[in-house]
Write a structure and sequence with these properties.
The chain has about 450 residues and is of the alpha+beta class. It has 3 domains: about 1-110, Rossmann fold, CATH 3.40.50.20; about 140-210, ATP-grasp fold, A domain (Dna Ligase, domain 1, 2-Layer Sandwich), CATH 3.30.1490.20; about 215-445, D-amino Acid Aminotransferase, Chain A, domain 1. It is built from 14 helices and 22 strands. Strand 1, helix 2 and strand 2 form a beta-alpha-beta unit. The relative contact order is 0.12.
Length: about 450
């Protein structure tokens, strides 16, 4: 069904409101489906390699707030280029309800959920209420945003320390502070509130009990506007630095199968209960149970977009999520049912950034004088980079994603180590060597780690 449907053009022209690896990924799907992609770019990206021979509209200056983060400019550019659909990618405006509302107002099909669903799930407290009502476990915390530090202290005393103060809007680790005792509540509340105000224009914060020693697990959802929804398994994203994911894999190597199946089914039902449309991810913390050792998956938040790490779900399922996104946005039903999804093997993704791990992960913009990407069986590379490309200082430093797939976790890790050894980047430092060290470590192989530390790695180690 999916194969025959893929030959039918959907939108004639689609506006890609993103840059770099994201833009390349969406454009590839457009080419395969007979859709013409038109790119929105900043002045800093006018000569970017992904624009070669492509149509583009300049959104504005290099600073993202005046280009990629301006929903009015983005929609104006989409209209100017006569696009009837818009794909936001991930990051930037991909979870901005105003962008969706503007698209809806101007008759542009937004590749994602409706504005009201995005708004509801983009706010952490309403999202948790909706997921609790749908039967998912949630992390204990405040029932809503906090009035003040006094209320925060009262709730923390009740649920137990340590606690995490979190921004009601946004994500990516911004607007988060830990309080390990009552004497730290006031400063943690003030600092979280200040960062939330600066980062998201919304100073409201809420509280969760801090899950220590937990693992980060997320579930990939895809749904259409006809009420059909499926999952593509779970991903384990526990290897992190300061709440930023470094390595993602599927399936999770530590999840009990009974917990897995129950939570996957509940996540699909939850997506249907809120009228979700498009690709989305439900994020959980695996709260370890010291008695049973199994743990409980507790809902944290929902990302109302496609995620960077969607590739591992695609590799295990054999389904193209961007294809499916475009069909769903055009009003089609999902091309498959849950029973038709067969998850096979193990997939690992490494995010390779232009950063220097030996210098505190300092971003390293500059010209790449030589670039050689790996290849071979079971290796996928998603990138926008080529030799001569200048990594700009204005945006995320991601250079590429390398995805290795094999029958087993150890085989996938070995395949990834070999692939990263074939990756050559001259001109700027990268995180590739660090990833090889992590993957080869006993801590990673025996999954003896959680979100608090990078397994098997230390600067200079």
């Amino acid at each position: 069904m999916a194969e025959s449907r893929a030959r039918v053009p959907l939108f004639r022209r689609l506006f890609v409101a993103n840059r770099g690896e994201v833009a390349v990924r969406v454009a590839r799907a457009c080419d395969e489906l007979g859709v013409t992609p038109v790119f929105g770019v900043s002045e800093a990206d006018r000569d970017a390699p992904w624009l070669d021979g492509r149509e583009f509209v300049c959104l504005g200056p290099a600073r993202a707030v005046h280009s990629y983060l301006d929903p009015v400019r983005v929609v104006q550019a989409a209209r100017q280029s006569q696009c009837t659909a818009l794909h936001p990618g991930w990051g930037f405006l991909s979870e901005n309800p105003l962008l969706v509302s503007l698209c809806e107002h101007h008759g542009i099909s937004f590749v994602g959920p409706p504005a009201h669903v995005m708004h509801r799930m983009g706010k952490k407290i309403p999202a948790k209420r909706a997921m609790r009502a749908a039967g998912l476990d949630v992390i204990p915390g405040s029932d809503g945003v906090l009035r003040d530090a006094d209320e925060a202290r009262e709730i923390a005393d009740r649920i137990g320390y340590p606690v995490l103060l979190k921004a009601n809007s946004g994500g990516g680790g911004r607007g988060m502070r830990i309080a390990r005792g009552a004497d730290e509540i006031a400063s943690a509340y003030a600092d979280a509130q200040a960062e939330a105000r600066a980062a998201f224009g919304d100073e409201r914060v809420y509280m969760e009990r801090l899950v220590q020693g937990g693992r980060h697990v997320e579930i990939q959802i895809i749904a259409d506007r006809w009420g059909n929804a499926c999952h593509l398994g779970e991903r384990d994203c526990t290897v992190q630095r300061n709440h930023q994911k470094l390595i993602e894999e599927s399936p999770s190597p530590v999840l009990d199968d009974e917990v897995r199946q129950r939570t996957l089914a509940a996540a699909v039902a939850a997506a249907q209960s809120i009228g979700y449309v498009g690709a989305g991810t439900m994020e959980f913390l695996l709260d370890p149970d010291p008695v049973t050792g199994k743990g409980v998956l507790r809902f944290m938040e929902m990302n109302t977009r496609l995620q960077v790490e969607h590739c591992v779900s695609e590799q295990r399922s054999g389904r193209d999520l961007v294809h499916e996104q475009l069909h769903v946005a055009a009003g089609h039903r999902l091309s498959f049912t849950q029973d038709e999804i067969a998850l096979r093997g193990h997939a690992i993704e490494c995010r390779i950034n232009a950063e220097d791990p030996e210098q505190g992960f300092r971003p390293a913009p500059g010209r790449i004088t030589r670039w050689v990407a790996p290849g071979g069986e079971g290796i996928r590379v998603d990138t926008h980079v080529r030799s001569g490309y200048v990594v700009p200082p204005h945006y995320d430093s991601l250079l590429c994603k390398v995805i290795a797939t094999a029958d087993t976790r150890d085989a996938a890790a070995d395949r990834m180590i070999a692939a990263l050894g074939e990756l050559h980047c001259e001109g700027v430092p990268t995180t590739a060597a660090m990833h090889r060290q992590i993957l080869a470590s006993a801590a990673f192989r025996e999954h003896r780690y959680d979100t608090r530390a990078i397994p098997g790695w230390s600067a200079g180690g």
